[in-house]
Amino acid sequence: QMCGLLEEAEWRCTRAEGGCGVRIGRTSRGTEVVLDEWVAKAEAVLVVNTVEPHYFAGFTGGRKSILPGSSAKKTILQNHYLACLPGSRPAVLEGNPVHEDMAEAAEMVTERVPVLHASGVVQGEGLVQFCVGGLAEAFGRSVEVSRKASCIALDRRRRLVVARQGRPLDMNLYQAMKAVYNCEDAVSEGGMLVLDADCPEGLGADHMAASMEAVLDPLWKTPTRGGYALGDHSTARLRQMRRRIRLGLRSTLPEELAARMGFDVIRSVRDAAEAAGDALIIEEAGFSVPVLSGASL
Description:
The protein contains 10 helices and 14 strands. By secondary structure, it is an alpha/beta fold.
């Protein structure tokens, strides 16, 4: 429908690498904000996206169309390094260094050019909310709706939690892992989080196996900002997670590969849940965030 409305317009995909980037400033956390020139030099910007929990930026949508969506690779790397730091959690914005850095970059854009944001919240196959307004305003309204739709109240942690991933995020391990990051807080100390995802397309990213194996390497250290590579934040997060809980995997991936990446191989989710005796199954776990009573969002 959007293409039909703007069928006479010129279309282009932004390129994080190469091209003519325009430097518009530096955030308080030191991220050099370099944007695609189409955005930086536009007369007006229309941002169209949806808002749902994001495993390190708090929520998708809003400012993410600016950073990373319209930013140079070095800007993305400097911002995403912040996901290695405390506070970068799903459904959390206050004190989240990744979100706050993105919001600063987006504010630089809104100070240069008018930005209209069309923001939606989708649950399952239905549109829960749609609103239009300024970038920060429309994003904030959608976040409140998304929290109500996606956050699951828990009275206590469980010994075993099954994060059941639905389509399309269960197509490969790279996408399915979002459920692990969303649901880790639901597992009690020493318990297990089982990712239940078919992964018919395999790992989904060339670096996935090496990144997962690095989690088990005692010599691996969280990189400095200058040495950060995309994906390092996931390795850092998983290392921290594994100090507290175990990870299991029920998928169609080869069992030897799953074991090499540090997963307990689960052949039957039902048997695992019965053996644990204290289990919780979370459906659509890539879009859901369990929240313990009293936790601050």
